[in-house]
Structure formats: C-alpha cells, structure tokens
Amino acid sequence: MKPKELDRINELARLKKTRPLTPEETAEQETLRRAYIAEWRKGAIEILEGVRIQRPDGSIVPLKKKTDK
Questions:
Q1: Three-state DSSP class for 62?
Q2: Cβ pair 61, 67 in contact under 8 A
Q3: Alpha-carbon distance 68 to 40, whole Å?
Q4: Which of 10, 12, 26, 42 is the most buried (most CB within 10 A)?
C-alpha cells in the first residue's frame, strides 16, 4: 500500500473522531480499509508459507494448511 493511501486512512480516522464523515468519505475509508486488509493478509500468508517446522526426528517440513472438519 502506498504511503499516500496510508496517510489518507489515518486522516479519515482523525476526522471521524472530530466530526461525522460525509457519505463519500465513509465510502473512501471503507475502500481503503479493505485494500489495506487484503494486502496485510497477502503478506501474512506469504510469511506463513515460508515457515518450516523441525520435527524431533530432525526432518524439516512446511506448515500445513488447517482443514475444517
């Protein structure tokens, strides 16, 4: 995410504390937040995909994605 976009997210958060946001500002804030969260998730997934676990027998295996039962 670009620094300008992060600055805008923070600016809108500060404005929201002092006055109600206009509908346009609220929509912009929501769009920016969704983009930020999507980028954060992508980075977290990349980090987790690079994690390796060393088992007691000395073997090193990647993390497995948890499956719902």
A1: strand
A2: no
A3: 23
A4: 12
| Rounded Cα distance, 18 and 69, in Å | 46
In three-state secondary structure terms, 53 is strand
63 with 53: CB under 8 angstroms?
yes
- Element at 54 (helix H, strand E): strand 52-54
Q: Over its length of 69 residues, how does the chain's per-residue pLDDT go in tens digits? A: 899 999 999 999 999 999 999 999 999 999 999 999 999 999 999 999 999 999 999 999 998 887 876
Token digits for 53? Answer: 């676990």
Token pair, residue 32, equals 């920016």
